[in-house]
Structures are given as structure tokens and as C-alpha cells.
Amino acid sequence: MNTHHHLPCPCGSGTSYVGCCRPLHLRHILPPTAEALMRSRYSAYVLHLIDYIIATTVPAQQTFLDAAELMQWSSETEWLGLNVISHKILGKDHAQVEFEAYFRDGQHRSAHHELSGFVNIGGQWYFIDPTVPLPTMKQPCICGSGKKFKACCGKYLKPVA
Ligand SMILES: [Zn+2]
Ligand SMILES: [Zn+2]
């Protein structure tokens, strides 16, 4: 179990796992940016650290996540790498990270292209999960900002153009 710590980090940063995503996975440090969070979530999928995936999703959304289902999906997927395309800071508390995650699909190498939204709540970055039930645009935002969803996190859940 300790042998992979000195191997390159699964997120593709070019540094070792111990010097990259591991301190985040152990919750020794918080991800300084949404990109760092996104990278650490990718490597958590590779290493099947589902607790980390759940803990780094917007707290109000965590109840909708199925740990067993996420574990099965991460275990059955053969992950081949990550390419972060862009990282945009949007206003005071939001960011978007565009990336491609590569995986094997039968005989083929496939890419999952995504523009993910992130929100900073109380100094900590969280992933906004677009796949769980979301409030309507006029309801209060999931992040607890007190704004309407459409004027807050809802703005950053746009499909890749
Ligand atoms: Zn990493
Ligand atoms: Zn919000």
C-alpha cells in the first residue's frame, strides 16, 4: 500500500504522489485552488478514495452521493491520465476547470471532456456536482450563500461549448 507513494502522482502533475495529492487526500492541507482540488479528485478516483470524493463535493450535495456506486465505477474504470485545459477564477467564490480525463473503453482510449464548477465555502473549495438533483433556478443556492441558485452556483454549471 505504501509503494505507490513515491511514484508519479496519478493526476499527471509530474511530481511524486507524496509531494502532490497525498497530503490533500490525508486532509493534511486544503487544496489551494480549484485546479488542485480537481486534480486531487481525479487521483482519488484512480486510487478509489471515495470518502475524499464525497468530502470534497458541496456539503449540501453529499447526501445524494452513493459511495458504493462511486466505488464500483472507480474500480471498473481503467484510468489513463488527466489533462487540465484551463482554470478560470470567476468572481470571489467560484472557479471553473476544463479538463479531459482519459480511460480505456474496451479496446479504445476514450476521453471524458468536462467543464467543472467549483465554489469556495468558508475558505475551502468544493466541487459542484451537476449530476445530483439541483434546486430550481429561483431556490436558494446549495452553497449557503443566501443568493438564488441561478445567481450563484447555477451560473457555473454550463456544458462545454
Ligand atoms: Zn497530484
Ligand atoms: Zn452558490
Describe the structure concisely for a colleague.
The protein is an alpha+beta fold.
- Report the order of strands and helices: HHHHEEEE
Percent of residues in β-strands: 25-35%
Percent helix:
10-25%
- Strand line-up in the sheet with most strands: 1-2-3-4
What is the C-alpha radius of gyration, as a whole number of Å? 16 Å
- What are the bound molecules? zinc ion
Mean pLDDT: 93
By helix and strand content, what is the structural category? alpha+beta
Give the biggest sheet: 4 strands, antiparallel
Query: Segments where pLDDT lies below 50 for 5+ residues?
Result: none
Q: What is the subunit arrangement here?
A: single chain
How many beta-strand runs? 4
Number of domains: 1
List the helices and strands and how they pair.
Layout: H1 22-25, H2 34-46, H3 50-55, H4 67-76, E1 78-90, E2 94-105, E3 108-121, E4 124-128
Antiparallel strand pairs: 1-2, 2-3, 3-4
The site of one zinc ion has 7 residues, from helix 2.
Summarize the structure in words:
The protein is α+β, with helices and mostly antiparallel strands and 161 residues long. The chain has helices at residues 22-25, 34-46, 50-55, 67-76; strands at 78-90, 94-105, 108-121, 124-128. It has a single domain, classed as Nuclear Transport Factor 2, Chain: A (Roll), CATH 3.10.450. The chain has four helices and four strands. The protein has a four-stranded antiparallel β-sheet with strand order 1-2-3-4, covered by helices on one side. A hairpin with a 3-residue loop joins strand 1 and strand 2. The longest helix has 13 residues, at 34-46. Bound molecules: zinc ion (2 copies). Residues 9, 11, 13, 20-21, 39, 43 line the site of one zinc ion. It holds the Pfam family SEC-C.
